[in-house]
Amino acid sequence: MAHVKKKRIEYIDYLRGLTVMWVVWYHAKHPDFVDYSFRIPLFYFISGIFFKLYDIPVFLKKKINQIVIPFIFFYLLYYLFYLFLNYCKYKDLYVINYAVIGDLFNPYVGTESFTINPPLWFLCGLINLQLLLYVFRKYISNVFCLLLIASIISLLGMFVIQDVPTYFMFGRCLRYFIYYVIGFVVGKTLLEYINERKHEILLLLLSVSVFLLGVFAKSFLAKEWELELFDMINIFSLIFIMIVLMKNMYKYKIMYIFKFFGMNSIIVLGFHEIIQTCIKIIINWNLGETTIFGGALETIMTLVLLYPCIIIMNKHIPMFVAKKEFCKI
What we know:
Elements: H1 2-26, H2 39-49, H3 56-90, E1 107-108, H4 121-139, H5 143-159, E2 166-167, H6 170-173, H7 177-193, H8 197-218, H9 224-249, H10 256-263, H11 265-287, H12 292-316
Antiparallel strand pairs: 1-2
């Protein structure tokens, strides 16, 4: 088990870094392939690997420090940024919609997100999935029953609940519950399994084969549920492919950037929208409508500027960015 923990430090954080960097790219003008939705399932799958069933007081304390406090901090920070942008736009304090801060407590449908710092839905989704798994795992010891329940909940999320107004992104995140639970159930075993080279190669070949077959089969499908099912199969295959590839690539020095952003994924998710919005304004002001090349430039500039911001936040306000405890109760 210590070996798995070491490996997590060595390449799992790199994968998390890939997902959040992909999120930044997704929020810029990008090629069509960037839309492929593996980034969210991969992030939740990885998070599920290291889920632990603590006693309720310890569990709540950890989630408050690791997710709730950073969420509140970046929500309020973006709200100040929102006020500043609107003042620059209208030059009038009386026309600004100050009440938008309360949109956090509005119900949302489908892929709708908060007006203030939209990417924070990711963190809302994470705490929802953790609470769900905590409750079910507390009372269900059979992993097959747990997987069955997770599958049903995810299917309901895809086809029913996503179109129902829910609070705190509950409906939006349910489709990803299966990824979080499977990460929890088989993640550590999978990491141990691929420590042997032959197992690693076998998993890679099997995953690539399933992915290609899934892509081919989808061309003959038309019903929504069939497409969603094969999408899920393809995404799981791609997750396993990415795990194996990153395991073999992380030692290259150029890959360190993935580790850095992976270890600071909360800050990337909470702060990149502010930097990216400023860059969008500057690019659009000088170059007009953004192209795919402009989107790539915007992504690179956002990540470059995030780097020193992350270092500063970790040093001066670690309790607000999940690096130190804020709540010690």
